[in-house]
Design brief:
This protein is 31% helix and 17% strand. The chain is an alpha/beta fold.
């Protein structure tokens, strides 16, 4: 295993963490411009773009202070690579295992390959795919519709638990930004461990959908928890652009994700698959925009913040990632990362380790 050879410019530290997560203020823009001029004056090659949120990562073998989370990476996207990476982080996965997967709207073109997930699930004893119903009207709005969509999309090779089919359970949020508890699908309490198997992609409201979004919205019950996470009442505004967005939505998601992560403790791991990365979520189904960024690979970690930070960094370093970067930044999606850091939901320092 070797460190991934991706060069990076020095990131802003400390108090810049919050400012960089949002659209730059004039003062921050001036500071960033000065930093860019300083960097350009140095005799070095042109560095790729990067996610301007949290400093102190270690992807190039550079020295860093303190500990660093391990994020394993494979540029090969197939079942063998998925299983290999999982086996590097699964030490604390035991008992009855929930595989949290976004199963997608009917005939969604970008969802994870069924054969790859099937081969992976077969390697995890006592496991089931878990989902919850959606707040929006669509192919997964009710349990009955959801079951039909699962058949259409080919998720028929193992048990699929629609966790809110039989009601909700409230999980506490410790020191939340906005929430004290979140209603999750009741079935979440039936599991000893969770594998968060995420198709990393863009998102209309969140900017990007990574591991944090997968559990924050994906575990929340369809008609109660998802309203809490989106900050809307009943009925919700018909026009979703009137729902809370940007920083507040990212903080609400961080609250919800923290409830899930705290519930499982160390018995939860995260996998991000960076393929078919449309600017739209898999909840857009067949209306999702065509991806314009090439597939990148698979990431695995036991650290939630580190894996989503690493995925964003790889997207920002990609030569053809302009559309996805614009989607992330225009929605202030990078606030997901700084909110997790403030919640102490992971280590902002990570080492990206390529697995051959």
């Amino acid at each position: 295993m070797n460190d991934l050879p991706v060069s990076r410019r020095k990131m802003l530290q400390g108090s810049a963490l919050l400012a960089a997560a949002a659209i730059l203020t004039p003062a921050a823009a001036l500071a960033a411009d000065a930093a860019d001029k300083e960097a350009s004056a140095k005799p070095s090659g042109k560095a790729p773009a990067q996610a301007p949120v949290i400093g102190s990562r270690n992807v190039t073998g550079q020295a860093h202070q303190g500990s660093a989370a391990k994020v394993y990476f494979s540029p090969v996207i197939d079942a063998a690579s998925l299983i290999k990476l999982y086996n590097l982080v699964n030490e604390n996965i035991y008992g009855k295992v929930a595989i949290k997967l976004h199963t997608g709207e009917p005939n969604g073109p970008n969802i994870l390959p069924r054969d790859m997930v099937k081969a992976f699930q077969a390697q995890v004893p006592q496991s089931a795919i878990v989902e919850t119903n959606t707040l929006y009207e669509g192919g997964r709005h009710t349990t009955e519709k959801h079951r039909e969509t699962l058949k259409v999309n080919g998720w028929t090779f193992c048990p699929v638990d629609i966790m809110d089919e039989h009601g909700d359970v409230s999980l506490p949020v410790a020191d939340g930004f906005h929430l004290k508890e979140v209603a999750m699908g009741k079935g979440i309490t039936d599991y000893d461990s969770m594998i968060v198997l995420t198709h990393f992609k863009g998102h209309a409201m969140g900017g990007f959908g990574g591991s944090m979004k997968n559990i924050a919205i994906g575990c929340a019950s369809g008609q109660v928890g998802k309203r809490q996470v989106h900050g809307v009442g009943d009925p919700a505004p018909a026009d979703w652009t009137q729902w809370p967005g940007k920083e507040k939505l990212m903080e609400l998601m961080a609250d919800s994700a923290k409830a899930v992560a705290d519930h499982f403790g160390k018995h939860i791991v995260y996998i991000n698959v960076l393929r078919n990365m449309s600017v739209d979520c898999d909840c857009a189904g067949t209306s999702a925009h065509e991806p314009t960024i090439k597939d990148i690979g698979i990431l695995a970690s036991s650290d939630l913040l580190a894996i989503d930070q690493a995925a964003c960094d790889l997207v920002f370093a990609s030569a053809d990632g302009a559309d996805l970067r614009e989607r992330i930044q225009s929605r202030h999606g990078l606030r997901q990362l700084s909110a997790m850091a403030e919640h102490k939901m992971g280590n902002p320092q990570y080492e990206l380790i390529t697995v051959n």
